[in-house]
Specification:
It comes from Brassica campestris (Field mustard). Residues 235-417 form the FAD-binding PCMH-type domain. The chain is α+β, with helices and mostly antiparallel strands. The chain is 28% helix and 20% strand. It has 24 helices and 26 strands. It is globular and about 95 Å long.
Length: 727
């Protein structure tokens, strides 16, 4: 009987499944794959189908961190759990099959006891409105958890460093509290923090440690029952709108479907944060490419480093940092940390970033620095199965990649020394490069200027420079043997090489005169396209970066000290000082924790949008005017077709007899709820669209077409205004 039972269990495990199985805060969820809209995001499910409301919808584009959750994956081969934060507003529900999700309620709550992170946030007075606080809590917990994975906390002190604590919440935005109390709350867990640097709080006192117990053992991020349910989805992926192929041949089969079937390749789905219109598009099939070995390859050899296109940006940083001694890889990794925020890098892929730049002219940092590194890409046409290799610079200049072609991998070639002491680039360009003299050195540097220099903001201009330099024969000057100068994100379609400047500098000894001439050439070559904002500022940044890179090569001190990297300032958080005068008599001057702060941190505080909707509830969205002083002739939809799930549009004409068209009342006048025949300004409410779900309502408002008539209206308004002024 025992053998039969074991056999049956084995057969059951081997069966392919037709449903998604995952866990949220230790609770098991199973959803039939055929009943899911593949475009459903994780936040939609958490807020509408579970009691966990701590996950808030803020920006909807992965930029604020209010929706951050901890995603945990189990590797049965290594018997290891990987924990990382993700943006639930971008993460597709179907992509978390076999994963575990932990929200701020899952860390602790008022019933089971608050987590130390919640207590620390409250004790450091780090909440005001509390809307963003649950996301902050998860980001802090993730930083603590991963810092303690390598080594257990020592004597009740976390392995998290103060510098890592500063980065832990760098992608979470807070409009009201300010970052000092939040960062201090996280830094208070680290062993190397100076207690005197921490702000006013109810925890840390002079001579006493802040951290007094172990965090990592308090929360189980991946339940045991889920480890036994790791199975692959149904063997026939054509049955469902969501497919997860495990081989290139299977991917080719899916992409080779009959014409007219729209297919979307997805990995992290982070592109929908920038290209919001992607969320509204309807696709027949979604294909998850993260399980294909060729797209997740990591290969290192003497020729360089190869990374699969489905490797996340965070994973790429980790791989490149394994060779810290290699200058170019370390610099690339450091720059990649400034791309988006940590919870976006944890799911966004290097291939997705490159494809956005190639197809849609996304202002990518990644493509600019990789062009300077002379990276190559491998492309596969699914129709023929032929694989082709191009330099990244060539690939970016090609026509937009066809929907049924796939970027397989990216290779960063190595610089390696040869017998005569010089260096050269391995790879396809090797045959075109000349051998350099003795004492040749490599310089590589990346630059970016952005509203938020530490990341999570698009750059005004980014740049990356590589140069082979050596001493001239006289030993009193530096010769540029070869250089590559790449600029991007300044209003052009793709990363651009300043080839005229490169040609001018090649073979020349760097001097003030040479550098000034190079700058003059650069001004004519790096010119933002017409319509680009702040064109003069962007051009001046290019000059600044070039001067910073080559300027140090003109000084004798550089020659005497040998070839070194250009000095770069270390980016730090802005400093501040908080002085609180202690009163002589307690409790005057004693810090008091805000009532409800722990509830805000754990996500238990209830906001209006957290209140559950009643059964059979309808949803709506306002329709706003896009023109001032215009007569409204009609309101309809594109192609004269009412979207599915839309029940109607309500205007002032639908107000019942006896009712009033009043929105807000004031002392002297009242505002209209709906514009009547003529709009007064752009952004005025015209109508209210009613639909079966909030998602349908939001999408449908973007399909609304309003027919305006401006003839005579603005002239009559002008005459009327002049008359009133004369009176």
């Amino acid at each position: 009987m025992g053998e039969k039972k074991v056999t049956e269990e084995k057969e059951e495990t081997m069966k392919s499944k037709t449903s998604l199985v995952f866990a949220v805060n230790g609770e098991r969820f199973e959803i039939d794959l055929s009943s899911i809209d593949p475009s459903t995001t994780l936040i939609d499910f958490l807020r509408n189908k579970t009691p966990f409301k701590s996950v808030k919808l803020g920006c909807g584009e992965g930029g604020c961190g209010a929706c951050v959750v901890l995603l945990s994956k189990y590797d049965p081969l290594l018997e290891k759990v990987d924990d990382f934060t993700v943006s639930s507003c971008l993460t597709l529900l179907c992509s978390i099959d076999g994963c575990s999700i932990t929200t701020s309620e899952g860390l602790g709550n008022s019933r089971a006891g608050f987590h130390a992170v919640h207590e620390r946030i409250a004790g450091f007075h780090a909440t005001q409105c509390g809307f963003c606080t649950p996301g902050m809590s998860v980001s802090m917990f993730s930083a603590l958890l991963n810092a303690d994975k390598t080594h257990p906390p020592r004597a009740g002190v976390s392995n998290l460093t103060a510098a890592e604590a500063e980065k832990a919440v760098s992608g979470n935005l807070c409009r009201c509290t300010g970052y000092r109390p939040l960062v201090d709350a996280c830094k208070s867990f680290s062993a190397d923090v100076d207690i005197e640097d921490l702000g006013f709080n109810t925890f840390c006192k002079k001579g006493l440690p802040c951290y007094d117990h172990t965090l990592s053992s308090q929360v189980c991020t991946f339940p045991e029952f889920l480890k036994k349910e790791l199975k692959s989805l149904d063997d026939d992926p054509r049955k469902y709108r969501w497919s997860s192929p495990v081989s290139i041949s299977e991917l080719q089969s899916l992409l080779g479907l009959e014409n007219g079937v729209s297919v979307k390749l997805v990995a992290g789905n982070t592109s929908t944060g920038y290209y919001k219109e992607e969320k509204d598009k309807k696709y027949d099939k979604f294909v998850d490419i993260r399980r294909i070995p060729e797209l997740t390859v990591v290969r290192r050899d003497e020729k360089g480093v190869e990374l699969g296109a489905a490797i996340t940006i965070s994973k790429a940083i980790e791989v490149l940092r394994e060779k810290e001694s290699v200058l170019i890889l370390a610099k690339i990794a450091a720059h990649m940390e400034k791309i988006a925020s940590r919870f976006v890098r944890n799911t966004g892929t290097i291939g997705g970033n490159i494809i956005m730049a190639q197809r849609k002219h996304f202002p990518s940092d990644l493509t600019t620095i990789l062009v300077a590194a002379r990276a190559t890409v491998k492309i596969m046409s699914t129709g023929s199965g032929v694989q082709e290799q191009y330099t990244l610079e060539e690939f970016l200049q090609h026509p937009p990649l066809e929907a049924k072609s796939v970027l397989l991998s990216l290779t960063i070639p190595s610089w390696r020394p040869v017998k005569n002491g010089s260096t050269h680039r391995a790879g396809p360009e090797h045959s075109q490069m000349k051998y350099s003299p003795l004492n040749t050195h490599l310089l590589f540097e990346t630059y970016r200027a952005a509203p938020r220099p530490l990341g999570n903001a698009l750059a005004f201009l980014n740049a990356a420079f590589s140069a082979e330099v050596s001493l001239n024969k006289a030993g009193d000057g530096v010769v540029v043997n070869d250089c590559l100068l790449a600029f991007g994100a300044y209003g052009t379609k793709h990363a651009h090489r300043a080839k005229k400047v490169e040609d001018f500098l090649a073979g020349k000894v760097i001097s003030d005169e040479v550098l000034l001439e190079a700058i003059s050439l650069l001004k004519d070559e790096i010119v933002p396209d017409k319509g680009t904002s702040n064109p003069g500022y962007r051009s001046s940044l290019a000059v600044t970066f070039l001067f910073e890179f080559f300027g140090s090569l003109t000084t004798n001190s550089w020659l005497n000290g040998g070839c070194k990297e250009p000095l770069r300032p270390v980016a730090m958080l802005s400093s501040a000082q908080q002085i609180v005068e202690n009163q002589e008599y307690s409790p005057v001057g004693k810090g008091i924790e805000k009532t409800g702060a722990k509830l805000q941190a754990s996500g238990e505080a209830v906001y209006v949008d957290d209140i559950p909707s009643p059964e059979n509830c309808l949803y709506g969205a306002f329709i706003y005017s896009t023109m001032p002083l215009a007569r409204i002739k009609s309101i309809g939809f594109k192609e004269n077709r009412v979207p599915e799930g839309v029940l109607g549009i309500i205007t002032y004409k639908d107000i019942p007899k006896g009712g009033q068209n009043v929105g807000t009342k004031g002392f002297f006048a009242s505002d209209l709820l709906f514009a009547e025949e003529v709009t007064h300004c752009a952004g005025e409410i015209i109508a209210f669209l009613v639909a079966e779900s909030q998602k349908i309502a939001d999408i449908a408002t973007k399909l609304v077409v309003i027919d305006y008539d401006t003839r005579g209206v603005r002239r009559a308004y002008t005459i009327c205004r002049r008359s009133s002024q004369e009176v």
